[in-house]
Amino acid sequence: MAFPVRLATASVVMALVAGCATGTSDQGAPGAAAPGVIESCGKRSTFAAAPNRVVALDQSSTETLLALGAGAKMAGTANLKTKVSPEHAAEYAKIPVLSPKVLTAEPLRAANPDFVTASFKELFTADRAGTRDELEALGVPTYVSAVNCPDGTTGAFERLFRDYENLGKALGVADRAGELATAQRALLAEAREKGAKRPQGLKVAWVYSVFKDVPYVAGRTGMPSEMSRISGVTNVFDDVDQEWPEVSWEAIADRAPDVVVIGDLSERGNPGDTADEKLAMMRAHPVLSQLPAVRDGKIIKLPGIELDASVRTVNALRAFGSGLDALGHG
Questions:
Q1: How would DSSP label each residue in 70-84?
Q2: CA–CA dist 122, 78 (Å, integer)
Q3: Are 267 and 210 in contact (CB under 8 A)?
Q4: C-alpha count within 13 angstroms, C-beta hemisphere, residue 239
Q5: What gap in Å lies between CA 34 and CA 256, rounded to an integer?
Q6: Strand ranges inside 17-141, DSSP E
Q7: Domains, the chain, ranges and CATH?
Q8: pLDDT tens across 256-294, in order?
Q9: pLDDT at 35
Q10: What is the pTM of this model?
């Protein structure tokens, strides 16, 4: 459904447009110009100056902004899945939580944002935050992670680093963004070096969440497939051109993974969110329980939030490699 017309008043529009016209530099000095134009999932946004009232629609986007040093520019966050990374906890505590779950139009507009960013384009729908077209008609630029919009030319981590570049450019923290990408590229190089030495042919399934007994796994376009390639293994659902496709427990068994990675979303609080709950479902399933990886405990548990594209994904990459080593696949 469309946004309520009563929210789209002239005063709101003017306030939002005015918000886009002023900004700060890396150091927070008022009036510093942001350098121009960024592109995101087929849309181009032009900035007269760096935004000062940024709203992130999910935790991964929020933590990326905090890692870029843009916490003081944030007017709101939403959709917290787990505890914020400890190094960002103090800064996060200063940011208004507009909704603990998915953010909708009215509280978003009440926050008077001048820039809205998200990891997933699905958060920009008419019954959620509003479409990107609706927000941009009000003068509010929007951004969707490049990881969620694969272009067929670069891997997921390079698209994540493109997020750093774009957000750094828009928010006036380009130097910080460059440093972050450089540091994380070094960690990727280490993981690739280890992956090149790993025995070939190892197959992995990544189980992210379960809803009404339907598992959601990692497809080709998200971070887990990229982590698999870097680590010298194969994601068994790499042929599915989606980020988190829904499958069946039987389909996982049919793909015969040697290792199963389970995302832990304990603190989100939905039924089946914990890694132990998911593993219990697998062990109770008449077919999947016979899979050697399940039967023999070839399981790696990782924080679910780190399987989405964010500054924390490199943590999952390193933990995944360590998990493979611990299972004898070094």
A1: -GGGEEEEE---SPP
A2: 14
A3: no
A4: 5
A5: 50
A6: 36-40, 43-47, 54-56, 74-78, 97-99, 115-118
A7: 5-181 (3.40.50.1980), 199-326 (3.40.50.1980)
A8: 999 999 999 987 878 889 999 999 999 999 999 999 999
A9: 55
A10: 0.84
